[in-house]
Specification:
The chain has a single domain, classed as Pectate Lyase C-like. It has three helices and no strands. By secondary structure, it is mostly helical.
């Protein structure tokens, strides 16, 4: 039994760490790009930074509320369960991003790209997606919003329960 425990322990130690990387988070907080970085639970609230590339990054459970992220490349990023409350993402790229269960309440997404983005269980209440690009009805059918959610003409979103 002791040998089994040692084998399991050594296996676990050989796995890559899934915790956040403070150095990579600091880079982004300082306004630098960080493609594919581990920004798990990063505190990016109130940040004002533009032209940042975090494509393929892990931003799961990050706090991005009330920040300005103009012209960010978030394509292929995992932004699931993140807090984007009141954030501004003008001309940002969310292509193929995972936004499952993200809180996007009151956020602005002017001219942002959403081709292939997963909005499953995302709350977009009060968000402005009126001029978002690449957004299709099937994405919105998996999200929820409210009567103040602004969408491209002809699109709808189920009400949050």
């Amino acid at each position: 039994m002791k040998q089994f425990a040692l084998i399991i322990a050594s296996f676990a130690l050989s796995l890559p760490a899934l915790a956040q990387d403070a150095g990579e988070i600091a880079r982004v907080q300082a306004g630098q790009s960080c493609k594919g970085c581990n920004l798990f639970q990063a505190d990016l609230a109130y940040l004002d930074a533009k032209d940042i590339d975090v494509s393929g990054a892990r931003l799961r459970q990050s706090d991005m509320q009330l920040a300005t992220f103009d012209n960010w490349n978030l394509s292929g990023a995992n932004i699931s369960v993140a807090n984007l409350f009141g954030a501004r993402f003008n001309k940002s790229n969310f292509s193929n991003a995972n936004l499952q269960r993200a809180t996007m309440v009151g956020a602005y997404f002017g001219s942002s790209q959403f081709n292939g983005a997963d909005l499953t269980a995302a709350n977009i209440s009060g968000a402005d997606l009126s001029i978002a690009r690449g957004l299709v009805q099937s994405q919105l059918d998996r999200a929820c919003g409210d009567n103040s959610t602004m969408l491209p003409k002809g699109m709808t979103v189920p009400l949050c329960q």
